[in-house]
Design a protein that fits this description.
Length: 293
Amino acid sequence: MSATSVLYDVPGPRARLRNNVLTLLSAIVILGIAYLLIKGLGDKGQLAAKLWTPFLQWDVWSGQIFTGLLGTLEAAALAAVLALIFGVVFGLGRLSDQAWIRVPSGAIVEFFRAIPLLLLIFFIQAGVATMSGYTIGVPAFVAVVVGLTLYNGSVLAEIFRAGVLSVPRGQSEAGYSLGLRKSGVMRLILLPQATTAMMPAIVSQMVVLLKDTALGWVIAYEELLNYGLKQIPANFGNLIPSAIVISLVYIAINLVLSYVANRLERRSRRSRRTTATVVTAPAAVGVSGGGGV
C-alpha cells in the first residue's frame, strides 16, 4: 500500500495501548453510570414488577401504545411530505434572480425558523380562534401538522438552497454553454447532484420532525408521548417505566428510519456521481444570502 493511500499514520504499540486503555476506561465509566441509574431506580421502587407488568399485556400495546404510535406516524408522514414541498418551493425561491421572489422567500424562511416550534403549534391552535373572535379552534392534528410543516420546511429550504450551491459553479456554466436555460440547468444538472449531497441532512431533519410530533402533547394531541406520559401512568401509576418504554419505541422507530434512509442514500450514490459536497442541516438562525445560481 502506498503512503499516499493512507489517510492517517498507523498507530504504534504505545498508541494502541493508549487507545485500549481509554476504551476500557470509557466502558467502565458507562457501566458505572448505568449501575447508578439502575440502583437509583431500584431504591425508589421503580423496578417493582407491578409497574412493568402492564407492558406485558396486549391490550396496553394495542389499545394505547399502538394507538399513540399511529397518531405520531400519521402526523409525521403528512408533515414530512408537506415540509419537503415547502422546502423545495422556498429553497428554490431563495435562489431566484428576481428580488420580488428571493426576498419574500428568505423572509418567510427566516421567520418560521426563528419561532420555537412549541409556540408555533400553540399559536396555530389557539391564536386563530383568539384573533378571529370565534370559539371554534383548530383541531390538534391540524395544528401539529401545520407547525411541523412550517418549521421543518423552513429548515429544509435552507438545506435545499445549500445543496444546490454546493455544486461547483463550473457545472452550471457547462450547462449554459450547451444552450440550456436556467430551469434546464437546475433540473438536469444541479438538482440531481445536489440531491445526493443533501440526503444525509434531509434524513436527519426527518428524524427531528418525527421526534417533534411529541410537542403535540401540549395541545392534547393523542400521539405516543401523550399515551406514554399521561394516559398509561394515570391507569397504572408507572410514570418512569412508561417513559422508558416509550423512549425505546422512539429509538426503534428512528433506527428503522435511519436504516432505510441510509440504504436509499447508498443506492443513490452508486447510481449517480456528484461533485457536490455533503450538506449539513443549519444549526442556528442567521441572515444568509440567497443569490441566484
